[in-house]
Amino acid sequence: MQNTKDMLQQWAASAKSRIPTGRGMFAQHISLWKELAANDFLQRKTPLSGNGLPQEFRCDIKDLDTHRVSVCNGFVAGQAGRNLLFPDKDAALGNAPCVCRLQDLSPAERERLQAFFQAEEAEPESGKIRLTADFAKPGRGADTLQFVRLNRELAPETLVVYLPAGCHLDKPLQIVNLCLGNEPLFLQPHYLMLLEKGASLSLVHCTDSHPQADILANALTEIHLQAEARLEYIQMQNVGDRCKIFHHIQANLQAGAHLNLHRMTLNGGITQNNTEINLLEPKAHAEVFGLYLQDREQKTDNQVKINHVAPQTYSRELFKGVMDDSAQAYFKGHVFVSPQAQQTEAYQSCRNLLVSPKAQAYAKPYLEIYADDVQCNHGVTVGQLDEDALFYMRCRGISAESARRLLMRAYADEILKEIGVEELRLWLTSLVKKRFSGQLQACQDCILSCTGGEC
Amino acid sequence: MLLEIKDLHASINGKPILKGVNLHVNRGEIHAIMGPNGNGKSTLASVIAGKEMFKVDGGQINYKGKNLFDLNVEERACEGIFLGFQYPVEIPGVSITSFMRAAVNQQRKYKGLDPMDTFAFMKYMEEKQALVGMTDKLANRSVNEGFSGGEKKKNEIFQMAMLQPELAILDETDSGLDIDALRIVAGGVNKLANKDNAVVVITHYQRLLDYIVPDFVHVLADGKIVKTGTKELAKELEVKGYDWLKDHITDK
């Protein structure tokens, strides 16, 4: 078996030839290949264990009652072999909901679970001339496939979230993902989520680091929703400016399944949120919301691919960003409607607010439609704070700075109000409020400051 | 004296608009400024409020004995100047309640007072809503978003009631109002006017002055106040039109 170091060297070597070379507005500015090819990449450590990790963290979310599971540097916290929802029970894919390490399941169960996530088809070889018939297939980016493979090869542990048919968890599940360390790290957090027929779950997944952490992460969440299953998934990131987090979420939805995905980027040096949703059966329904609040030199890249491959499927994307200082934001949305996917509805929208003269936003909406009976639209905007509104507010005695913050918060609210669980919505609203008033630092309001350990 | 404007000159993009305005306003008075379109009425209101797009080229404004030009927009508001907008701005996503809460509390802070607690604020707001007949439903909507013309102007008077200014300048508050809305808006202003504050209404028409009875009527034409009189002047203007005044001035 190859050791990790050799594998990393191979990845680093092959990365050099894969760095996107395009130029201009829509070139791929943010790419994991760049990071893998960087001179200091091989000096990054890949943690061998989650040692030193407390068994459980206390997370300070007021009024928020959740089931909580922690993951640290890609390792799952909690007793080996156990169902982390009910620590007195063993990990098993039975009649009860289960959150556990993949490694703690029996080989037969592992196989059963992984079968949901292995139906992969390689993209046609690049260089080959593609025919219309090739385009009319819901392909996935060749890069994405590579990064999925990288994660699966290197992820030390996998967190499994399993809900049996018809199961509804009594309260939201919270996954706290920590990036800790005094030296540069390369991490591969990996999550597998299976909701069986009719199951439903609210999930909040926060990634935190301490402010000085130097982390490169290639995170992967794989989701399978069986018929009529419902998942509300709030993925929130609040890490230090030296962290570069690439997080790919891919989801397969069967008939009538609902996915509400929120991608909240509150803080981070480089953030790439990659989302791929496959609407495989009729009436599958996906809504993807994104909010990115960036300042200083932060960069964020949201890429969303939605494949409508069955009739009567629905998707809606709404991404909004507020960019301050010299921050940069990129958005690339791609809705694919296959010839079979009649009566599809697909809506795609990305809006950006630039609040400083040096901030930049690039947005590229894209629809690729091969069916003729569909309702689709797309739109992107890049704008500034409304000067008339600022003057109006100042005329009532509100300071210019408060007026700006009020307008920015109102802008973000359109995304926040889509969060179904009220406590989560209020909590995120308060985080966003703090973010705008400069009170939110990575590490604050979450676990690290409470453990008093590394921080 | 509450407000004293001396020989005020102001321009926009190099184009002179105000060419030597003089105006004195005392507490307890209601003034009406009338005049044809495009002669500087709204510019005068904007300059007093502090809108940066207008350049002050000369003259002085003293307000409560202070040089008004030393204060920025929000400080002027906190010192008690209120501008009722001709075209109130829509602010999507900010409810009237949170807007007013921010305004009331920032003005209190400026005066060294503690912020109002939620309960007291809601009660206070309810009281002022009643004054212009604003429903809770409207109060919970985003500021002016999708409001009718009448609702927007009611909202301006409601804000005036909330902030209790010492000097209220109402810029064409009557434009776009039907007669019922006009009564409500004017009724609100009359209830708020008292011996300690002053109101300056800017209007085209005599109509508003049937409801808000001014102590003084000024005519602003070609960047100057060309005539000052009592409410009778407004009536005369209504009959004879501004052209009469133009001739009148030329004669002089």
Describe the 3D structure.
The complex is a heterodimer of chains A (455) and B (252). Chain A has one domain. In chain A, 47% of the residues are buried. In chain A, helix 7 packs antiparallel against helix 8. In chain A, 20% of the residues lie in helices and 37% in strands. Chain A has nine helices and 23 strands. Chain A is globular. The C terminus of chain A is likely disordered. Chain B has one domain: P-loop containing nucleotide triphosphate hydrolases (Rossmann fold). Chain B is built from eight helices and twelve strands. Chain B has a six-stranded mixed beta sheet, with helices on both faces. A four-stranded antiparallel beta sheet of chain B has the order 2-1-4-5, covered by helices on one side. A two-stranded antiparallel sheet of chain B has the order 7-8. In chain B, a hairpin with a 2-residue loop joins strand 4 and strand 5. In chain B, helix 4 packs across helix 6 and helix 6 runs parallel beside helix 7. The two termini of chain B are 30 Å apart. The chains are: A alpha/beta (455), B alpha/beta (252).
List the helices and strands and how they pair.
The complex is a heterodimer of chains A (455) and B (252).
Chain A (H helix, E strand, L loop, with lengths): L3 H12 L16 H6 L29 E6 L2 E2 L5 E2 L2 E5 L7 E4 L5 H9 L16 H4 L6 H13 L4 E5 L9 E7 L5 E3 L2 E6 L4 E10 L5 E11 L4 E9 L5 E10 L4 E10 L2 E10 L5 E10 L4 E10 L5 E10 L4 E10 L6 E11 L5 E5 L2 E3 L4 E10 L3 H8 L5 H17 L5 H15 L10 H5 L4
Parallel strand pairs in A: 1-7, 6-9, 7-10, 8-11, 9-11, 10-12, 11-13, 12-14, 13-15, 14-16, 15-17, 16-18, 17-19, 18-20, 19-21, 19-22, 20-23
Antiparallel strand pairs in A: 1-2, 3-4, 5-6
Helix pairs in contact in A: 6-7, 7-8
Chain B lengths: L2 E10 L2 E11 L4 E5 L6 H9 L5 E9 L2 E2 L5 H6 L2 E4 L6 E5 H15 L7 H15 L3 H4 L2 E2 L5 H15 L3 E5 L7 H14 L5 E5 L13 E6 L2 E6 L1 H21 L1
Parallel strand pairs in B: 3-10, 3-11, 6-9, 9-10
Antiparallel strand pairs in B: 1-2, 1-4, 4-5, 7-8, 11-12
